[in-house]
Amino acid sequence: MIDYKKDANFIWADLSALDLKKARSFYKSVFGWTLHKDTSAFDAISDEDDQFGINKSSYYGAFAGSDAIAGIFDMPPFFRKIKMPSFWMSYLSVNDIQGVVDRARKIKGVVIEVEPSPFYKGQIALIRDPAGAGFTVYEGPEFSRRGDGSKPGHVVWNELIVDSVKKVKPFYEKVFGFKLERDTSYKTVRYKVLNPAGEEIAGIEEVDQDLRGDKVYWVPFFSVESLDAFSEKVNSSGGQMIYTDKNPYGSIGLVTDPQSGSFGVIETGTPQGLGRSGFKYRTAIALLFVALSIAFNWQWFWGIAFLAWIYPDLKSGQTYFVEPIDSRTNPVWFWLIMLSWIAMSLSLIFVSI
Length: 353
Prior knowledge:
Elements: E1 10-17, H1 20-31, E2 34-37, E3 60-64, E4 67-74, H2 77-81, E5 87-93, H3 97-105, E6 111-119, E7 122-128, E8 134-139, E9 155-162, H4 169-176, E10 179-182, E11 190-194, E12 200-206, H5 209-212, E13 217-224, H6 227-236, E14 240-247, E15 250-256, E16 262-267, H7 281-296, H8 299-316, E17 318-321, E18 323-326, H9 331-352
Parallel strand pairs: 1-4, 5-8, 9-12, 13-16
Antiparallel strand pairs: 1-5, 2-3, 3-4, 6-7, 7-8, 9-13, 10-11, 11-12, 14-15, 15-16, 17-18
Helix pairs in contact: 3-4, 8-9
């Protein structure tokens, strides 16, 4: 049986820019990022491993406060030669990079543009799916994580923009063990991408050529406070907001930077991969029980409610108590908070018995 990584997820994005100086200026202007040179990811790459002639000293890390958001670097000669516009690359964590590459290689139309090579403290490989969309797989210690939508300027989502889902559906199912479910809440043809653990980690949507251009690609989505205000920044900085919409998940936009690099934006607070619009029957039932628990002093209900509340935190490894706490970067504080909530929940339940 194939050992798929149960928590496969998108963890990073970087921009390969035709004009690095202009790209740094644009993204600093529209997102307010600070940019610092960071060559540590390339320290392990030898000249023999470098298949594209990357200018290793050109890599800049983009930060929002102390949070590392993405990377921006000078486009390698290989991509310039084939006349690529500036492009954003999405990174997907995997458990067995060689297994992924071997499985991908067997599927018709797939191109392995970069064989497994050293990167940061692990390995990367660059794969182009049967429709032609390129993305990077990474095996190694986690160095980043998508935001939850509560802060502007963070990567919060990834979407594959294609001309036909049928071209790529078998590829992502066979190579990564993903489950693709039709999302009927959209007017367009769109599928949810679920990893082997059942978590919705991305989407695949069919978009007309007049909007997406003549290519298909993975798009990172960044959170913004206001779509309208961000659109004004984009236009005044030489970019273009080519599409806006209110879909079942909220207000989104598709943007091209001054060098035709495409990325998405979504208003802060819009949930990623969460419930659809319509009547929220579970919310209605929960509110009813809250009212009854207050009326009849049901202490046991609050105990159960707290347990239900912390379940998503245990599953995601992230919680919020005065400030955000991540289990991987602050394991002691994370588990102290979780154990405190569990102890309080059990005490409320047993006091009622």
